[in-house]
Design brief:
By secondary structure, the chain is mainly beta. The chain contains one helix and seven strands. It is globular.
Length: 120
């Protein structure tokens, strides 16, 4: 796992998000009008508002779509075998990309509309 690419820190606009991940929390932002902002950034994509508030997601969502990666020659990922990458619609109103874990066979055990929960 040490050979896999890792994010660079510190990154002021996303640091609170990564701190949440370390604490087992999926954090997202909202602007003053209540618009959800995800992925983390320094301003609202709807209003341009820079005064964003941080919130903690329940981590519950629904698979919007997914793809199973069956072959990967990139160092650090070769040992994974087949794995699923998905877009998940979180209950709080934002969509995020994630891998799907906790399934025996990603080629048969995942479907669009499936309920999932974030794991750290």
């Amino acid at each position: 796992m040490a050979n896999r690419p890792q994010p660079s820190f510190p990154e002021p606009d996303t640091q609170h998000f990564w701190d949440g991940c370390k604490e087992g929390e999926l954090r997202y932002q909202t602007d003053s009008d209540g618009n959800v902002v995800f992925y983390p950034r320094g301003h609202s994509t709807v209003t341009g508002d820079r005064g964003l508030s941080w919130n903690v997601s329940s981590g519950l969502g629904t698979v919007y779509t997914y793809s199973v990666v069956r072959q990967n020659r990139m160092p650090g990922f070769q040992e994974l075998g087949a794995y699923a990458v998905a877009y998940v619609d979180l209950d709080e109103g934002f969509r995020m990309m994630s891998t799907i874990v906790g399934v025996s066979d990603p080629t048969t055990d995942i479907h669009i509309g499936q309920r999932v929960k974030v794991e750290f």
